[in-house]
Write a structure and sequence with these properties.
Radius of gyration of chain B: 35 Å
Strand order of the largest sheet of chain B: 2-3-9-6-8-7
Structural class of chain B: alpha+beta
Largest sheet of chain B: 6 strands, mixed, barrel
Number of domains of chain B: 4
Distance between the termini of chain B: 38 Å
Structural class of chain A: alpha/beta
Distance between the termini of chain A: 35 Å
Shape of chain A: globular
Oligomer: heterodimer
Strand order of the largest sheet of chain A: 6-7-8-3-9-10
CATH architecture of one domain in chain A: 3-Layer(aba) Sandwich
CATH superfamily of one domain in chain A: P-loop containing nucleotide triphosphate hydrolases
Radius of gyration of chain A: 19 Å
Strand content of chain A: 15-25%
Helix content of chain B: 40-55%
Number of strands of chain A: 10
CATH topology of one domain in chain A: Rossmann fold
Number of strands of chain B: 22
Largest interface: A-B, 37 and 31 residues
Amino acid sequence: MSTKLTAASTKLTAASTKLTALSAMLRAESLHHHVATGEGPLTLLNNISLQLARGESLAITGASGSGKSTLLGLLAGLDRPSEGRIWLAGEEITAMDEEQRAALRSRCVGFVFQTFQLLPGLTARENVMLPSELRGERSAAKRAGEFLARVGLEHRLHHYPRQLSGGEQQRVAIARAFASFSGDDGILFADEPTGSLDAGNGEKVIELLFKLNAESNTTLVLVTHEQRLAERCGAHLRMAAGEIKAGEADSGSLSEVSI
Amino acid sequence: MPALKHSLLALRLLARDWRGGELALIATALVLAVSCVTAIAHFTDRLTRAMHIQSQTFLAAERLVNSSQPVDSAWLNKAREFGLQQAETVQFASMLAAGDEFQFAAVKAVSDGYPLVGHLEMRALEGDPSRVVQGGPPPGEVWLEPRLLPLLKLEIGDSLQLGDTQLTVSGLLDHEPDRSDNLFSMGARLLMNLDDLPAADILQSGSRARYRYLFAGDDQALEQYFTWLEPLLTEHQRVIDLREGQPRVASALDRAERFLYLAGSLAVLLASVAVGLAARRYSLRHTAYVAVMKSLGAGRGKVLGIYVGQLAALALIATLLGLLIGSLVQSQAVSLMADFFPAEPPPSHWSPLIVGLATGFACALGFALPPLFRLARTDPMQTLRRDWSNPDRREWLGLILGPTSMLLLIWWLSGSLAITAALFAGMALLVGGSALANQLLIRGRLATLGGSWRIALGSLQRRAAFNTLLIAAFGTGLLAMLALVFARTALIDEWRMQLPEKAPNHFLINIAPTEVDGLQAMLADNQVTSTEFYPMVRGRLTAINGEPTKDRREQDNALRRELNLSWTDTLAPDNRILEGEWWDESDEGVSQEESEQGVSVEVELAARLGLALGDRLRFSIGGLEIEAPVASFRSLDWNSMRPNFYMLFAPGALEDFPATYITSFYLPPEQKLLVNDLVRNFPSVSVIELDKIIQRIRDTIDQVSLAIESVMVLMLVAGVLVLVAGVRASIAERLQEAAIIRTLGGRRRLLLHSLMLEFGLLGVAAGLLAAAGTEATLAVLSQRVFDLPFVAHPMLWLLGPLVGALLVGTAGTLACRSSVSEPPLKVLRELA
C-alpha cells in the first residue's frame, strides 16, 4: 500500500513538473556545462535552474567570462548542456537532436546579436526574409516588409548592411528576430544588443525592442552589461564564475528562480 | 517537397550570393578550370587527329600490305565488303629511253584512288607553280621528277619508252606523300598509271618489284579486315602501319601525344588547386553566414541541402560557361595556328566537352564539396562567441575525396597509369614537404629577428596551417609549370638531336672501289663533306655455332635476307661497344685468317638471335663461306643518317670478296644539281635522295614542337592564375594586420619589405618543394612515358625557388599593396 502511495506520489510530482514546464515559456533545471581544455575540464556553468513565463523578460548580467553568453546559447538550444534539462515553449530541447532543436528555433526563437550578424550579401529585406524562407513560407517578402516598417526602415528595404548605420543594422536585426516567430509562442534572445552602438542609438534600439516585445507578447531573455537596461526587465540574474550569485536573483515578476 | 523548397531557396540564395560577389571566387575558379581543361582537351584532340592524318600521309594510306608478289584478288574483294577504300601501287627500277638517252629510274605505277591519304603535287609546265592533285597521271601519261628531264633531254609533252610502251610526259612530279616508303629505291621517280603496266610488259614472274595495297576507312572496319587478313599473309607479305613505316615520326607523335595528355593532366591538377583554394575561402567567409542561419533555425541537413544545391547549380552554370569559353579559346587558337598544324585542323569533336564537363563536376565534388561539409558543421554558438574561425577538423573527406577524384580524372583523361603515377609521386613529395614545412613553421624559432623579418616570419608562423596549404598550392602551380617546361625541353632537344640541321640527306651506293677516289675528289671540289666510305659485301648468315639458320628464318628478318657486311678500324660516332673488344689499328690484319679477330654485332639483333660473345657465325658470301667469332656487341643509331651495319669485321677480313662502297653526305638545296653531275660522271653509282623526306619529317617535328610550346604557354598562364588565386585567398588577414600596424605607426617601407619577404619566403619554400616534386615527376615520366634516359636537373633546384620567390613575391606584394598605399582606416572599414 505504502509502495503504491509512493509511486503515485512520484507520478504526481513528475506530472506536476511537466505541467510547470509546459506552462512556462522557458525552464532550465540543474544546468551544468563543462568544456575540455588542454589543462583538464573547465566548468562554464554550475547548477543553474530558472523558469520564465510567457511574455516575461529576464536580464542576465555579469562580468566578462561569467558564463552569461554560454547560458544564453544553451537556453536558446544552440548547444546542449553537459548536464541538466531545458524546456522551451513546452518542449524539452535537451532531449532533442540538433535537427529537432533547429526546427524548434525556426518556429519560436529569435536572436539579436551584439554585432548584428546581418548577412553582408543580402539586402535589409532579404536578411529579414531569411527566417521565413528557411521555414519555406511563401509570404516571406511581404512579412519582411511589414517588420521593417515596424522598425521604421521601410525606406531601406533594398540597402545592403554596409550601406546602413550601426543603429539601422541593429533595427534590421530586430526585425529579423521578430520575423523568426511563426506563431504566438515567441522567445527573443538578445546578446548585448546595444554593445556595438553609441548611447543615443542604443537607447532607440532598446525602446524598439521593448515596444515590439510588449506588442507581440513575446518572452525576452537578454544578456547585457548595462544596469539601466537590466532594470527594465521583469527579472534580473547576476552571474559570476558560471553561477548565479547567491542572494542576487531579483525575483520581481519572475515566476521562479531557483538557485 | 521539402527538397524542392530547399532547391528553390538554394537558387534564391545563389542569386543573392552571386550579386553580393561571394560566389564569384568559386565560380571564377571553376570557369577557369573548365575552360583551361576544355581548351587544352580540344586543342590536343584536334592536334592529335591532325597529327594522325599527317602521319598517315607518310604511307598514303591508313594501313597497307607490302608484298613481293601480286596478292590474291579475293583479299581485295573482301576489303570492299568491309567498305574500305583501296588503291594499289607497284614499284620497280627500270631503264627509261628517250631518243639516244637512257636513264635508270624508280618507277611507280599507281591505280585510281592513289593516294588514299595526302596528296600529290605536280606542274603541267616547267615554269608553273606546283599544284595539289588528288590522283596520279591518266593512262598513257607519266609524270617525272624534274631531275629526269635534263638527264633524258626531254621536255614536257615528249614521249619516252618504258618497256614495250611509249608514254607521254605530261607533268613534273614535285611531291608524293609516300616518297619515303622505299628509302633505297634507286634513281629519280617516274609516276605512271597502273593500267599502262601490262602494255609495258616489264614485270615477269620473279621480277624485283614491290606491290603495295593501300587501305583506308573506318577504324573498326580496318581493324576487322586486318584481323581477317593477317593469318593469310605469307612470309613475302607484311602489314605496314605508321609505326613500322616511319618509326621516327611515329615515336615523335607518340611522345607529343603523351606530352599533350600530360599538359591536360597538369591543367586538371591546377584547376583542382584553384577550385580547392576558392572553395576554402568561400567556406571560411560563409562560417558566420551559416552560424546565423543555424541560430535562425536551419538544421545541418537544411544548410547542407542549401549549399550542395547552390554548388550543383553553380557547377552547372560555371561548367557550361567554361565549356563555351574553352571551346571559343581553342577555336581561336586553332585558327590562328592553322598554318602550323601538320594537316588541315579536323573539326572539333564532342569528347573534349565531356572532359571539360567531368573536370567541372570532379573539381566541384572533390574540392568544393568537402569544405561545404565542414561548413555545415559550423557551431551556431559561434554567433555568440563572435569567433569565425573554421577549424580544419575532420579533413579526411577532403583529403580522400579531392586527390582521389583528381587522380581518377587524370587517369581517365591521359589514359596513362604512368602519367598518373608520375603526378602522384610529385604531389606526394610536395604534400610531404609541406607537412614538414608546417612543423618547421610551428616549432621553429623564426620570430627572433628584427624589423621587417620579424613581422614577416611572425606572420608566417601565426598562420602556419594556412601557410602550409598555400605552400602546397603554390608548389603545385610551380610543379605544373616546371614539369611542363622541362619535359618540353627534353623532348624537343631529343628530336633536334635526332635530326641535326646538317644531317646527311643523300646516300651513294654501288660505288666501285675504283670510283672511290674520284667521288671523294668530286665531293671535295664541291665543298661537300661525306661520311666515311664503307666497303660493303652482301652475305647471308647461314649458321650460328655450326647450327644452320635455315630452320630459324621465321625468327628474324635478318636470317631471311642477305646482310650488308662491312669492315672498318674506326667506330662511327654513333656506334658504341657495349660488350667485348673492338680491334685497334695495331690488330689490322692482312689475311682472311684475320676474320678470327671476329665480328662486331649490333646489340639488338644479337639479342633477337640470342648470341653470346665468342659464338661462331658463318656467312655465305657469293657461294664462299667465312666464319668468325662474335667479338663485341655494339649499339648504334639507325636514325643518324650515316651508313650503319649489323655486322662489322676487322679490316682485311673480307678483303678477298668483291665489295662496293657506300657513303652519305649533306647536300644543301642550292647544290641539288650536283646530283645530276654525280649521276652523269659515275653512271653505275646510285644516288638515294632523302632530302625531301628528311625535310618533311623535320617540318612535322617542328610543327609538333610548336604545338607543344603553345600548349605549354597556355599552361604557364593557368599556373600563374593559380598562384594569383592563392595569393588572393590569403590577403584579407594580411591586409588587416598591415592596416593595424600602420595605425600603430608602422612605416610603409617596413610593411612593404615584410610583405615581400613573407610572400617571397612562401615562394621559395613552394619552389623548393616544387623542384623536388618535379624531379620525382620527371624521373617517372622520362622512363615510363617518354622513353628517355633519366637525367638529374640541377637547374630545377635553382629555378624552382627563384621563380617561386619572384612570382609569389610579386603577386603577393601587388595584391596587398592597398594595405600600404591606402589610408589604414579605409582598409579596415572595407575589410569590416
